[in-house]
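Recall that a protein's primary structure is simply its ordered list of amino acids. Everything else, from secondary elements to tertiary packing, is in principle encoded there. The following example makes that idea concrete.
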Amino acid sequence: MAELGNNQKCYIGASLSGTWTVIGGETNNTVNLNGNPVEVSDKTSPWQKYIAGLRGGTIDVTAWADNSDAQQKALLAALKGGSSVFVFVGKLSTSGQSTTLSEGIACEAIVSSISTTNDNGSASTRSMSLQLTGEPSIYPTS
């Protein structure tokens, strides 16, 4: 069933099994998973044949630029330091004191770019692009 996109938020965590905090001021996110097909055609057919090659993905997030937001600062620091971050895009479920990943994609990623747009008469926005590193976990798992 279709669902409103505002229910799918981008979170940053200390680990894949740790606490998750939403990126402040987020206005949209996009998750792109992709495969790199490898051609294995031969001369017996006029049609190309492929096998699955390496797979990967990106996550793009846009937020109102906020230099005091801890998650935006963490992404800026990760880009500057060349370190990876843990990201979850989706919905969290809370039961009592426990929060679990309900629906979405969790992964380790490196920050590939951050850009800030400062239009005349508009609030500044920050676009952050993340490159998945390794296999993502997709929730629900069953």
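The radius of gyration is 18 Å. The first strand starts at residue 9 and ends at 13.
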